[in-house]
Amino acid sequence: MSSSSPPTTTDEFIKGLWRENPVFVQVLGMCPTLAVTNSAVNAVAMGLATTFVLVMSNLAISAIRRFVPKQVRIVTYILLIATFVTVVDYAIAAISLPLHKALGAFISLIVVNCIILGRAEAFAGKNPILPSLADGLGMGIGFTGALLTLGVVREVLGMGTLFGVALFPAAFQPWVIMVLPAGGFFTLSAWMLVFNALRRRQRALSEPA
Amino acid sequence: MTPEPHWQILLNSALVNNFVLAWFLGICPFLGVSNKVGTASRMGAAVTFVMLVTALATWGINMLLDTVGAPYLRLIAFIAVIASTVQLVEMFIKKTSPALFKALGIFLPLITTNCAILGLALLQTNKGYDLGRAIIFALGSGLGFTLALVLMAGVRERLELADMPDLVKGTAASLAVAGILSVAFMGFAGLGS
Fold it and tell me: Which one of A75, A108, A193 has the shortest CB-CB distance to B167?
């Protein structure tokens, strides 16, 4: 895993999980991260939908990367992404109407999630199909994980439940603020602090004293 | 159901359901361009303008798609229109005011991937606004976005001078400030209803 050897497909997969985590390290895709994480179920659904679009668009863009003129590549990418998002939108509506309602406009808004266009531009447009697939999958799972960390905290504190199951005795007073928009900002801010501290400690350990 | 009066739409979209602080739309520019009050207000103006044009264009597209009976093309059509509108605005500003063009820099083309714009188009469709209401809604949302951006920039200009631990500086501090702003905006709840 030394940095001098060319990255393998596994490396492309793993980097999205932690080292280049789209939410906590690259600070991309903030809108869905904050908006749909008021419960753990919503967070997972949003994460999976984004992962699907990310993998499919990475695959498609990587496959056509030699045929797209440089000047029109962004438009091509975004139209491809919009197509896959439409597929996801209709699929979710078919699977679970309540979920579709809960996520609302944010399913369609996957189109403008900077993570997807960012990976298309930074990775899939330049790399073969297999690494692009791994990259998309890794970033997608990293994104889902990040959403889940937020969703769990907000649901447990804000409603006293986890995946809809009550955790506390009836006397527990839920912190309503956590499921409101402000709670999203506060939770993400707190997680950022935790991850900054972890990364700093890691760096301090890896550097020779 | 009687349609909402215009003033109520304006008030709701600008304050009560503020795009940034209540609906989490347009967080990226909100965190990215809110360093200085001057840049923030100009960015707000550019976004408001694109919102107005988009509202007009999407209203037309909706009419067209409903007549043709192809609602599944909505998303693709919206994003194509927004991308070309932004391109148009970019060329217009470059021609008329090179100084402003320079000041906005990379954030001008990035308006395309600002979810506030696409969000506006989708919400306007979901709510079934007529043309007049759509324009008012776009105006209110743009004003609300600008207000949030300018408020944030004002706080952050002060924060620059504050003595904070290194760990908190940057995104974590900005998000905490955004949270407090969001709490403040909760005070507007019920104002327009």
Answer: A193
**Is A24 domain-assigned?**
yes
Q: Is B193 inside a domain boundary?
A: no
Distance from CA of A70 to the nearest CA of B (A): 16
Give domain status of residue A175, yes or no: no
Distance CA A141, CA A139 (A): 6
Domain extent, residue B165, equals: 6-185
Q: Is B191 domain-assigned? A: no
Q: Quick check: is A32 in a domain?
A: yes
Q: What was the ipTM of the complex prediction?
A: 0.81
A145 belongs to a structural domain: yes
Nearest CA in chain B to A76: B80
B53 touches chain A (CB under 8 A): no
The one-digit pLDDT tens for each residue of chain A (209 residues) are 444 456 778 888 888 787 788 888 777 778 788 888 888 888 999 999 999 999 999 999 999 999 988 878 888 888 899 999 999 999 999 998 888 888 888 888 888 888 888 888 888 988 999 999 999 999 999 999 999 998 999 998 888 888 878 877 777 788 888 888 888 899 989 988 888 888 888 888 887 65
Contacts of A75 in chain B (CB under 8 A): 80, 83
